[in-house]
Amino acid sequence: MYRTHNNGGLRAANIGETVTLSGWVQKSRDKGFMIWVDLRDRYGITQLIFDEERTPKDVMESARDLGREFVVQVTGEVIERESKNPKMPTGDIEILVKELKVLNSSRTPPFTIETETDGGEDLRMKYRYLDIRRNPVKEKLIFRHKVTIAVRNYLSEQGFIEVETPYLIKSTPEGARDFVVPSRMNEGQFYALPQSPQTFKQLLMVGGMDKYFQIVKCFRDEDLRADRQPEFTQIDCEMAFVEQEDILNVFEGLTKFLLKEINGVEINKFPRMTYDEAMARYGNDKPDIRFGMEFGELNEVAQHKGFNVFNNADLVVGIAIPGGAQYTRKEIDKLIDWVKRPQVGALGMVYVKCNEDGTYKSSVDKFYDDQDLAKWAEKTGAKPGDLICVLSGESQKTRAQLSALRMEMAERLGLRKADEFAPLWVVDFPLLEWDEETERYHAMHHPFTSPKPGQLEMLDSDPGAVKANAYDLVLNGNEIGGGSIRIFDSETQSTMFDHLGFTKEEAQAQFGFLMEAFKYGAPPHGGIAFGLDRLVAILGGQETIRDFIAFPKNNAGRDVMIDAPATIDDAQLKELNLKVTL
Amino acid sequence: MYRTHNNGGLRAANIGETVTLSGWVQKSRDKGFMIWVDLRDRYGITQLIFDEERTPKDVMESARDLGREFVVQVTGEVIERESKNPKMPTGDIEILVKELKVLNSSRTPPFTIETETDGGEDLRMKYRYLDIRRNPVKEKLIFRHKVTIAVRNYLSEQGFIEVETPYLIKSTPEGARDFVVPSRMNEGQFYALPQSPQTFKQLLMVGGMDKYFQIVKCFRDEDLRADRQPEFTQIDCEMAFVEQEDILNVFEGLTKFLLKEINGVEINKFPRMTYDEAMARYGNDKPDIRFGMEFGELNEVAQHKGFNVFNNADLVVGIAIPGGAQYTRKEIDKLIDWVKRPQVGALGMVYVKCNEDGTYKSSVDKFYDDQDLAKWAEKTGAKPGDLICVLSGESQKTRAQLSALRMEMAERLGLRKADEFAPLWVVDFPLLEWDEETERYHAMHHPFTSPKPGQLEMLDSDPGAVKANAYDLVLNGNEIGGGSIRIFDSETQSTMFDHLGFTKEEAQAQFGFLMEAFKYGAPPHGGIAFGLDRLVAILGGQETIRDFIAFPKNNAGRDVMIDAPATIDDAQLKELNLKVTL
């Protein structure tokens, strides 16, 4: 037996006991006649003491040779510490070592295994197994486990059944790219890895499973943006005999439960907002509502006053930055530079200082007097002391730009508090969105989403205006879940494929099995999928997901630790009837 | 809202309530003035009654058109049934229907959606979503969910952390074939799907996670034998600072818990047996010990008596079949034919009838007298009335043949009882096994398994004799789990790769990251993996796994429902820099 206790558990009550501990040498202080060693494992740190007068000579000598991250086993007596450390759970005691066994030595680690490390991102990823020894990473993985156990038990108690759906499925060109898997036994044919278990969960509903969930890996071969992973995890859910309201209630329940269980935060009722309203008020379909700075539309009060920039714009819109009136000219210029960065893309920014004395000072004083600007203040909710920032141009772009500014300012002003949680349902999403590149409409959610009742006919006359029974759950400005009520009759599904530009043959080849299934008594159904990586990160008070994933890939989709992907044997390729054409 | 109750919940106490139900039409009996419909969902069946006198006329007419598997919503009053059905939980009541809405129609299903169906395997797989509506399949999926929730909660309470390891990893030619996944972003390179998270869980131990588990899909591109799937699920576990005894205790605990929780069976202590003993006593490293028929080795008492077949054999070995003495000559001939089938491969079989009067009658009476045969009976534990069946030849093959006979006879005699559970640890497996085809030793478990202390040196002198710290958990004649204590220093690991025929370069290219990790303070560690599909099937009293998998693949690795794998677009191939060479 390697240990009688772990390194987090011994207390004053154990004084006098002989114990055996194992773990890693966190650090060692050699005072000559005495050596102290911090012994670490997953559970904590226990201080070991080697004392010339009380520790056998050979043990004392071995102790001197211990390096950082050596793995050792010690046996000794639990004694009271002379100088107690109230910050450590084990701070009242130390182990007077009698026996020491080096289980494994260690090279000097390439970065310090401490909460604050000197290791850069690349080094930490290459030696991820060392990074995981660090408290912040280890705690995040344990946190993730706690969240998934809580999710599973909650849904299970609500009557949901976790069903494993297959990973080796069929490629569907719609949407993002699939990863494909050549089949050796079916020559020249390929499986695809699922982007989500969408069709399978729908088939489970056709199969009468009624309430399904699965915590499941999904795969997308996309060019990776920052903080995206080619493999990611979803909490995938589906219910039969439900309307949108049922789904919203059930998963509001789950999210409330998590916030209470994991974060100790109680939230009574999640607010709801239509997509259109979210875009108008926040310029964003996943608004962070922990803070205000809502959009004020200024067309009515700012156009036709001789300022051509505004006159020619589809939309003139502003936000009030709390306390911004005191910004210096230089600070405001920097803000203007910020919105003009290519990542944001505004052509310029108009500002209005709302002075404490009720007067205004703007960058467009030539065109607008205090009375005009008072109206701007009213529309943006600006108070004396605030700074109104105004952007204009094509509606959608301008909203996106102002939303970026709003988020940036909230960040700078410390309004995005990690321990504050503001969930929000965004509902009534458009069914379709126009894709500039392919010059056609795409399904905004996916091709299985049902239009709002009675709007199917509008698909011909005004496709962009058709709303869907689709909803997103937003938490602190991040989409943590999204779903829809599905089409459940084969005729509507077929119509939908037509409108999305599928030929009958394509639709049949890719989704024939689903339309066939709909002919055998498909029940009304709908569902939702949560992005687990993101959900866990946000519950953990963070926005980057990488440290909540044990072995993440880098932005090139590589695992730099194991050095994958890699070339494979010619023999392997030959067996698969494949040739690399480089 | 589609329903106020499900179809399994209404009782006499609900009589008088107005309820709304939704579900599938299981069957319909039209008596003219009255129509009864069985309405089914996941939760049960509720009887609907449409009565000319009490149901609106239009509803009555719609009811007449209902076909099997139509999806309907009804509203009506819960009334007392005239003829109650005590076999159904809802058998005391029926619903007097006032409103009926057909939510979806159904074509006539290709097979009956009943417990006993007329659908063959192929048809059921093609329409798996209909098959899942059948109770036996649905119940198995729910059963699987119960097992996984129980496993997760038990391990979590024992301090295990579920960590998700990556699915897109690196190909390693050792062992079974990997499925590979071409990378678009890393031209000409491939990921591989994991055959198990073996190296990652070991890295998690190096990373100090201490106790890891994961219920995880694994992939093997093998030619499929019956009841094998290209993707399968493991309960994968690993612990640091453990010896074999620790692992056995922890996972005996898990298995005991499952047997108690899921099957209501209490088992005190699992027996243990070495591999050598299992082979000697049962000819099998996963013996079913629910019954006896242990092997009796007869070399000592059967050789050198003039019977050349036995004299020339490495091994002469028999079992006693209870009550077999009464088999007719014809029945025995059929048994002999059975062992001579190519799947078993024996050249013949000698038998001895142990008569009730203490005399013997054998097929080799020419060579052996009653005194000789009495010794055979003693060695095989045969009692009067039993039949001793004896095989001979090369030891390993003969044992396998007799084991097959033993299992077959147990099956025929009803000794393999589904509700009886006999777990067994088999320990001290050989480290290596000789592979006839490649003419070299392979790791019996995998290359990371540690040899028994002090046996590393024997790798040169007598590699086949080296025993490993490896163990299997056997349940009712099936291996449900297997694992080992791992090598945890890079030097031993490197030696092991040498003996397995890896060049230094190959070992470095494939497992360099692991050997590197071992240089930074790897702790002693070991683990186990359970085959979830098999475990669930056996706990469920079955031996075939297919119905415990929602969407299984057939023996050619195909999903016949979605028709995968399939060919992919040339554009997709081009993006991946691949060409199919058929």
TL;DR of this structure?
By secondary structure, chain A is α+β, with helices and mostly antiparallel strands. Chain A has helices at 57-64, 121-126, 128-131, 135-157, 198-206, 244-263, 275-282, 299-302, 308-311, 329-340, 370-380, 395-412, 458-461, 490-499, 504-517, 532-539, 570-575, and strands at 18-30, 34-41, 44-51, 71-80, 93-104, 161-162, 180-182, 190-192, 211-219, 231-240, 272-274, 296-297, 315-321, 350-354, 360-362, 387-393, 423-427, 432-435, 440-443, 470-475, 478-485, 525-531, 578-580.
3D architecture notes:
Two copies of one chain form a homodimer. Chain A has 582 residues and is of the alpha+beta class. Chain A has three domains: 12-104, Beta Barrel (OB fold (Dihydrolipoamide Acetyltransferase, E2P)), CATH 2.40.50; 145-167 and 195-272 and 423-541, Bira Bifunctional Protein, Domain 2 (BirA Bifunctional Protein, domain 2), CATH 3.30.930; 291-412, GAD-like domain (Gyrase A, domain 2), CATH 3.30.1360.30. Helix content of chain A is 29%, strand content 24%. Chain A has 17 helices and 23 strands. Chain A has an eight-stranded mixed sheet, sandwiched between helices. Chain A has a five-stranded mixed β-barrel with strand order 1-2-3-5-4. Chain A has a five-stranded antiparallel sheet with strand order 12-13-16-14-15. Chains A and B meet through helix 3, helix 4, strand 6, strand 7 and strand 8 of A and helix 3, helix 4, strand 6, strand 7 and strand 8 of B.
Topology record:
The structure is a homodimer.
Chain A: E1 18-30, E2 34-41, E3 44-51, H1 57-64, E4 71-80, E5 93-104, H2 121-126, H3 128-131, H4 135-157, E6 161-162, E7 180-182, E8 190-192, H5 198-206, E9 211-219, E10 231-240, H6 244-263, E11 272-274, H7 275-282, E12 296-297, H8 299-302, H9 308-311, E13 315-321, H10 329-340, E14 350-354, E15 360-362, H11 370-380, E16 387-393, H12 395-412, E17 423-427, E18 432-435, E19 440-443, H13 458-461, E20 470-475, E21 478-485, H14 490-499, H15 504-517, E22 525-531, H16 532-539, H17 570-575, E23 578-580
Helix pairs in contact in A: 4-6, 4-16, 14-15
